[in-house]
Amino acid sequence: MISFDEAVAIVAGAARPLGRERIALDDAAGRVLAAPVVARIDGPRFDVSTMDGYAVRDGELGQLPRCLRVIGEAFPGAPFGSPLEPGTCVRIFTGAALPAGADRVVMQEIVERDGDEALFATPPGSLFVRRRASDFAIDDVLVGAGRRLDARSLIAAAAADVDGVEVFRRPRLLIVGTGDELVAPGQAAETAAAIPESISVGLAAMAVEAGADVIGRQMLADDLPAMQAAMAEWSPRVDVIVVTGGASVGARDFAKQMFGEIELLFSKVAIKPGKPVWLGRVGERLIVGLPGNPTSALVTARLLLRPLLDGLGGRDSLASLAWRRAILGTPMEQGGDRETFWRARHVDGTVMLEANQDSGAQKTLAEADLLVRQRVGQAALEPGSEVDVLDF
Ligand SMILES: Nc1nc2c(c(=O)[nH]1)N[C@H]1C(S)=C(S)[C@@H](COP(=O)(O)OP(=O)(O)OC[C@H]3O[C@@H](n4cnc5c(N)ncnc54)[C@H](O)[C@@H]3O)O[C@H]1N2
Ligand code: MOO
After folding, report:
1. How close is the Cα of 79 to the center of ligand 2, in Å?
2. How many Cα atoms are found within 13 Å in the side-chain-facing hemisphere of 89?
3. Tell me, what's the pLDDT at 222?
4. pLDDT per residue as tens digits for the range 124-154
5. Does the keyword Transferase apply (predicted)?
6. Above pLDDT 70, what percent of the chain?
């Protein structure tokens, strides 16, 4: 049995990006950049007005009041074509390019207009000009490689005037639930020995958050030949298979056998919950085995599957394991011989351990928003002590 840190190191080693592809910017939300987005134009492209008003030569307003002749209009996309002559100004709107010679915009609220004359009597304040390339210049990197494209970075990428981006390929994931007792949620009440297959819907949500493409969820009864046939059929279409249940030593625990020849990267980690978690490789496919107990499955998915999917998809595989210090609001008993990840929740700035720490708990999962890391043999802690926590 290996330690949690050893398991994380093995996961990080296996989590190499799968490949790259070029896609339309319109399809890029949530994708991870494989190459930086470089500006094809300056931003802004020219000096532009930041107000609706009048574009003037600043020097003309040395002495107020001053009257200038309005010789034309400048709109965004429809600039005023000629330079400003002395004694003139141009009606201008927010976002329009300044005419040549103009270096200030006066807000229309403080200008009195009379026919083609504009009267400037009030000190005009700021210049109200956004300079060419003051945001970014042509060839600047606007979004760096490795960044997951979100609302903010997509706006910057579009402003760079690119219609496509190079991204990492998303890991294609199959989630397999094993167990004769499992039925789809909504079907259990009618059958005495059945329980809802509850884990895969949660794992799929986590995988999507990690940028993976969940191409299938499959429930399999504990029937080895049928399991082997199903895996042979799915395998060519996926990069990662997550199998829940059958990880332990039960008579019908076939999770590993159904893959035939499997290279195990680890099998069993000294953690609680989730000791039977395993990682293997079949050809180019990675197989993650999670324990069937739902809390064990989600804790091990959070701690090991999430980093794996992040890394395969081109992100820093360890970024999601951002432990931070927080104050305990309940007592914590002494650590055992496995590292323990207590389910807990934030209440008024403190960390409250959940009362139900059963690895089969499911209701508690809906409440817990933190994992608290407790080292092997760590001394018991009183409320007010500092602990390491991770968003769950
Ligand atoms: N003799 C031993 N027994 C067990 C050991 C051990 O070391 N020696 N380890 C225990 C630990 S720790 C865990 S965790 C569990 C994990 O067992 P499996 O991965 O083999 O899980 P199953 O036996 O298939 O199922 C356990 C439990 O979870 C329910 N389950 C399974 N899959 C789902 C699902 N997709 N949705 C909802 N619930 C699911 C299943 O019905 C069982 O109740 O083994 C201990 N035993
Ligand atoms: O180590 Mo298991 O995940 O507790 O029940």
Report:
1. 69
2. 30
3. 86
4. 999 999 999 999 999 999 999 999 999 999 9
5. yes
6. 99
Domain ranges of the chain: 4-17+170-321, 22-43+136-167, 48-130, 324-391
Query: Residue 255: what pLDDT?
Result: 86
Distance 305 CA to ligand 2 centre (A): 16
Q: Which atom of ligand 2 is nearest to the CA of 272?
A: 1
Q: How far is the CA of 246 from the centre of ligand 1 (A)?
A: 7
Looking at domain 22-43+136-167, does it have CATH number 3.40.190.10?
A: no
pLDDT, one tens digit per residue, over 261-310 is 999 999 999 999 999 999 999 999 999 999 999 999 999 999 999 999 99
Q: Do residues 178 and 254 touch, judged by C-beta distance below 8 A? A: yes
What is the residue with the minimal CA distance to atom 4 of ligand 2? 273
Tokens representing 95 are 């976002």
| pLDDT > 90? residue 253 | no
Instruction: Report the topology of domain 324-391.
Output: Beta-clip (2.40.340)
Q: Tell the residue nearest (CA) to atom 5 of ligand 2.
A: 359
Q: Would you identify the CATH topology of the domain 4-17+170-321?
A: Molybdenum Cofactor Biosythetic Enzyme; Chain A (3.40.980)
pTM for the structure as a whole: 0.88
Residue nearest to atom 34 of ligand 1 (CA): 197
Q: Considering only CA atoms, which residue is closest to atom 3 of ligand 2?
A: 274
Per residue in 41-84, pLDDT (tens digit) is 999 999 999 999 999 999 999 999 999 999 999 999 999 999 99
Are 35 and 22 spatial neighbours (Cβ–Cβ below 8 Å)?
no
| Chain centre distance of CA 120 | 51
Q: Determine the Cα–Cα distance for residues 119 and 117; give it in Å rounded to an integer.
A: 7
